[in-house]
Design a protein that fits this description.
There is one protein chain. The chain has one domain: FAD/NAD(P)-binding domain. The protein is α/β, with parallel strands linked by helices. Helices cover 35% and strands 27% of the residues. The chain contains 12 helices and 18 strands. Helix 2 crosses helix 9. The longest helix is centred in the C-terminal third of the chain and has 33 residues. The chain is globular and about 70 Å long. The protein starts with a strand and ends in an 8-residue tail after the last helix. The structure holds flavin-adenine dinucleotide (FAD). Flavin-adenine dinucleotide binds next to helix 1, strand 3 and helix 9.
């Protein structure tokens, strides 16, 4: 009997990983992606132990990961010309592995994306580029999807991995505007500044009305992003034009200490993009169509959990498919409803909590006024010794499984 065809909409970060798992578990996945080829857009991701734990289930993938792990995570305050270290943690791969099983790893998005696409293709997954899904029609035992170029295709069930502007989500639950958080980021890639050479450091710098995060993504290069409150900017991850990039390189941010100013001055491919999320949905599926990753729970990036939570979604949906459909046979709508209900019950509240947490973290990062900033900095300093915060981090990094049930 032929394997069951599953359509994955979107070949971003989640789609290729999901399709790889589906293929290795006896399904016949096909990915449809809106853009015509994988591009260079985007900056970087900080992969965290919970996300890496899921990726480790694809044999050989982590060994090829083109990333870099920070040895130290340093939180600093830069206020009124005065610089102060608030927190300095050992995050070396050995320490992280000992505590959480996996390290932190900074990776350029384009390189991570290429690796995940290659991995899916090596496992025999077909990817149809240049196909934007626009219409979804469900019948008793299948879904027909129509693409903007007129192509139609049918699959047993569909997983919408089509990101912040998901048409799958619109088809299921109607159109609503993405929520602009009021914050934008400028980000780029730079040679590791002299101040940080010899140390592989993740820097988190808290200023007056702005914040910078910077971490190594390859030997000798740091990716960085500055968050600030500004007028709404498009979320397209596109590089600024030459004049705009020069303006940022020469602007006030280039005077920051701790090597941050140097990162701004030497920044390449500087992009500016608005930060968005969406309100929590009541449900993530209808019939044979389900949402995953940013399509279900888009988030602002301040907890670094966007991609990592998408990987957790994938783990659970694959685990539940195995539980309810161990032979990977043609699933009834009732069976899929069991899988998708368990999945959303487990994931919806958890991811909503993280989306709200990321918003809160973003607001703290752009606090204005010296007194308010000093108060914030004290909270950060104290937080590094707070047992509840440490426990929350332990739980986050220890997810989504101890022994895989996938
Ligand atoms: C170009 C780009 C660059 C990014 N850069 C960064 C970054 O530097 N740092 C960061 O933290 N986050 C970045 N993100 C967001 C980040 O990838 C996600 O937050 C996260 O990894 C979750 O992945 P996802 O697969 O759910 O969504 P995404 O990675 O956003 O993938 C969604 C995919 O679906 C495709 N798609 C959309 N609509 C349709 C449709 N109707 N039919 C078919 N395909 C469709 C999109 O083109 C995209 O490839 C970027 C997203 C994009 C699209």
């Amino acid at each position: 009997m032929a394997n069951i065809r599953v359509m994955v909409v979107g070949a971003g970060i989640a789609g290729p990983v999901l399709a790889t798992f589906l293929k290795t578990r006896g399904y016949d996945p096909i990915i449809y992606e809106r853009v015509s080829s994988p591009g260079e857009s985007g900056l970087s991701h900080l992969l965290q132990p919970n996300g890496l734990r899921v990726l480790s289930l694809i044999p050989g993938l982590l060994e090829q990961m083109p990333g870099h792990s920070p040895d130290r995570m340093i939180y600093c305050s830069s206020l009124d010309g005065k610089e102060d270290i608030l927190v300095d943690n050992d995050t070396s791969p050995d320490t992280m592995r000992e505590q959480f099983g996996f390290p932190l790893m900074g990776v350029r998005r384009a390189e991570l994306h290429r690796l995940l696409i290659d991995t899916a293709e090596k496992h025999g997954v077909e990817i149809k580029w240049g196909h934007q899904a626009i219409e979804f029609e469900q019948s008793e035992d299948a879904v027909q999807v129509t693409f903007a170029n007129g192509v139609k295709d049918v699959a047993s069930f569909v997983v919408g991995c089509d990101g912040l502007h998901s048409n799958t989500r619109i088809a299921l639950f109607g159109k609503e505007k993405a929520d602009f958080t009021g914050l934008v980021q400028f980000g780029g890639l730079s040679p590791t500044p002299a101040a940080l050479q010899g140390n592989s450091v993740l820097l988190s710098i808290y200023g007056n009305g702005r914040h910078m995060i910077a971490y190594p993504v390859v030997e000798g290069k740091h990716a960085w992003a500055i968050t600030t409150r500004e007028a709404e900017a498009k979320e397209d991850w596109k590089t600024q034009n030459v004049e705009q990039q020069d303006e940022i390189r020469r602007g006030p941010l280039s005077a920051w200490g701790f090597g941050a100013g140097e990162l701004v001055k030497t920044g390449q491919k500087i992009a500016k993009y608005g930060l968005y999320d969406r309100p929590e949905l009541k449900s993530w599926f209808k019939g044979r169509i389900v949402l995953l990753g940013d399509a279900a729970h888009p988030t602002s990036p301040h907890l670094g959990q966007g991609a990592n939570q998408a990987f957790e979604d994938i783990y659970h949906i694959m685990r539940l498919l195995k539980k309810y459909n161990p032979s990977a046979g043609q699933p009834s709508t009732e069976l899929l409803s069991q899988v998708f209900t368990d999945y959303q019950d487990l994931r919806l509240l958890r991811t909503s909590e993280l989306v709200r947490g990321a918003r809160k973290q973003g607001e703290a990062r752009v606090v204005e006024g010296i007194d308010a900033c000093r108060a914030r900095d004290e909270v950060i300093r104290a937080g590094s010794n707070d047992d509840a915060a440490k426990m929350a981090q332990y739980e986050l990094f220890s997810g989504p499984f101890k022994d895989s049930e996938m």
